[in-house]
């Protein structure tokens, strides 16, 4: 049994920034692990806005029943402009003191961690982050909460698009989420047999895209799917579709933007297990006196990464995956 060397009596948990499937499972894990170790737990609703406006609820082990399988976040999430100000954060600190909260678990992305670390430095309130975002763009963990679920949602949708693409000999541009990161695009593209995959991390040119189409024509392909990450630098899906149609008037070109369906749904096994492990790790980390770190999973082991590193560094796109995608699209 882990020791509560840091004498934590009460933990506050909140979800912040873009929601992702698995956040509920992480809340449940933090609450149940706290209870297991004899620590009280409070939920803060609406992210940092809830901390500023005293939206605090007591959470016991039974109050998180029926949560592990649900998408979204029961505590709700927010993007709080007020928390970006010193005044906002000092109001938030008053709430923390009023409820005798000793430490915070922040489930969110890089922005939420930036807020958490500033708060910790200004107000001395320990916190541990749990990476929750579908984009998988946080350093210090192989996977973020929601990424696996989002990938499965995307693959399910593109499989369906393939049916009509094949039936009508169409070219589909499918936009997936990833404001700055191509993890969803690259992996879903491989999993769905895309002709080409465009991601922000790679410098793509329209000529490269056209040469993919030329190759496809030569090889006798009759339909194609091109997966495009939202943050792709070459241009948005509508422009890409327009340029393609100008170059190949004979193509029946269609665009699908998958949008927010990628953010919802019941979390996959991988996300539920990840959330469960990271929730326990965050509670045990706080008990052991850790703060200003993110609990992540690397090679199936729990790893605590300094929050500054988690925010500033980036997981590199695996070049091998790009090669696999290139080889298999021939
Ligand atoms: N520099 C900052 N100072 C204080 N709070 C911040 C800062 N950056 C982000 N935050 C807080 O974290 C919230 C979530 O950040 P955001 O970037 O929207 O999402 P995510 O955590 O998913 O990356 C912001 O709305 C804000 O309240
Ligand atoms: O409509 P919203 O909430 O801005 O969400 C869109 C964003 O969600 C994301 O999938 C994840 O964003 P977060 O960093 O906030 O988790 C981005 O790729 C996308 O731009
Ligand atoms: Mg972010």
Automatic annotation (TrEMBL):
ATP binds at residues 18, 79-80, 109-112. InterPro entries: ATP_PFK, ATP_PFK_prok-type, PFKA_ATP_prok, Phosphofructokinase_CS, Phosphofructokinase_dom, PKF_sf. It comes from the Bacteria. The keyword Oxidoreductase does not apply. Pathway: Carbohydrate degradation; glycolysis; D-glyceraldehyde 3-phosphate and glycerone phosphate from D-glucose: step 3/4. Residues 10-285 form the Phosphofructokinase domain. Its EC number is 2.7.1.11. Homotetramer. NCBIfam families: PFKA_ATP, PRK03202.1. This is ATP-dependent 6-phosphofructokinase. It comes from Apibacter mensalis.
């Amino acid at each position: 049994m882990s020791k509560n060397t840091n004498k934590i009596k009460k933990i506050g948990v909140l979800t912040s920034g873009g929601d992702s499937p698995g956040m509920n499972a992480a809340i449940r894990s933090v609450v149940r692990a706290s209870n297991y170790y004899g620590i009280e737990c409070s939920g803060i609703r609406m992210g940092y806005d809830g901390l500023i406006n005293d939206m605090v609820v007591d959470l016991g082990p039974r109050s998180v029943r029926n949560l592990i399988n649900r998408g979204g976040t029961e505590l709700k999430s927010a993007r709080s402009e007020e928390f970006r100000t010193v005044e906002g954060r000092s109001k938030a600190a008053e709430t923390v003191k009023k409820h005798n909260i000793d430490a915070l678990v922040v489930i969110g992305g890089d922005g939420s961690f930036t807020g958490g670390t500033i708060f910790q430095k200004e107000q001395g309130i320990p916190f541990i982050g749990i990476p929750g975002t579908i984009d998988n763009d946080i350093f210090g963990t192989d996977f973020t909460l929601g990424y696996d679920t989002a990938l499965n949602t995307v693959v399910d949708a593109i499989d369906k698009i393939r049916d009509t693409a094949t039936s009508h000999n169409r070219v589909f541009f499918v936009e997936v989420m990833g404001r700055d990161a191509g993890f969803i695009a690259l992996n879903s593209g491989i999993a769905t047999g895309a002709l080409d995959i465009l991601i922000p991390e790679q410098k793509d040119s329209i000529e490269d895209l056209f040469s993919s189409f030329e190759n496809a024509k030569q090889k006798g392909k009759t339909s194609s799917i091109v997966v495009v990450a939202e943050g792709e630098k070459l241009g948005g899906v509508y422009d890409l579709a327009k340029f393609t149609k100008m170059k190949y008037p004979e193509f029946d070109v269609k665009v699908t933007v998958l949008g927010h369906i990628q953010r919802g749904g019941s979390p996959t096994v991988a996300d539920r297990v990840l959330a469960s492990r990271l929730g326990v790790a965050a509670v045990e980390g706080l008990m052991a006196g850790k703060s200003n770190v993110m609990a992540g999973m690397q090679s199936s082991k729990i790893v605590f990464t300094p929050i500054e590193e988690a925010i500033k560094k980036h997981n590199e796109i695996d070049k091998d995956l790009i090669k696999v995608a290139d080889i298999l699209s021939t």
